[in-house]
Specification:
about 140 residues, mainly alpha, single chain
């Protein structure tokens, strides 16, 4: 029973979201630290779009195949779980030294990511509290 609670899809999505926010914070910090480094190209973290593709299938709006009953034929997609990925943005240049970091954009991204992280942590805490209450009420 405990394994089903810990391995639930809610715990999985929230923990992957927290991991993505943590990685995004590290990447944004690296971008800010290198704002004056010549030829430095900033990086971004991609997660939400990958998760949407995992949940909803391709971008054409078609749903992915899922097994709704153990008697259905198995669908082999591999693990299918996506995780955050770092992408270097090497196609733009902001200044004459070929650096493409805009400190104002990075600081705004840091604040946005902090709000995202806090929301994910609060939701995970709330989920754990609901599970705890459900267990202790029996």
């Amino acid at each position: 029973m405990l394994e089903q609670i810990v391995n639930s899809s809610t715990m999985d999505y929230l923990s992957r979201g927290l991991n993505a926010a943590n990685l995004r914070h590290e990447v944004i910090s690296d971008n800010i630290a290198n704002v004056n480094t010549p030829n430095f190209k900033k990086s971004d973290v991609v997660f939400e779009d990958l998760l949407a593709k995992e949940l909803y299938g391709d971008t054409s709006g078609h749903m992915a195949l899922v097994r709704t009953n153990d008697r259905h034929l198995p669908i082999s997609h591999g693990d299918g779980r996506v995780s955050a990925a770092v992408e270097r943005q090497g196609t733009t240049t902001m200044r004459t030294d070929n650096n493409n970091v805009d400190i104002d954009v990075e600081m705004a991204n840091m604040a946005k990511n902090q709000i995202y992280y806090n929301a994910m942590a609060k939701e995970l805490s709330s989920y754990i509290m609901r599970v705890k209450n459900a267990i202790s009420s029996k």
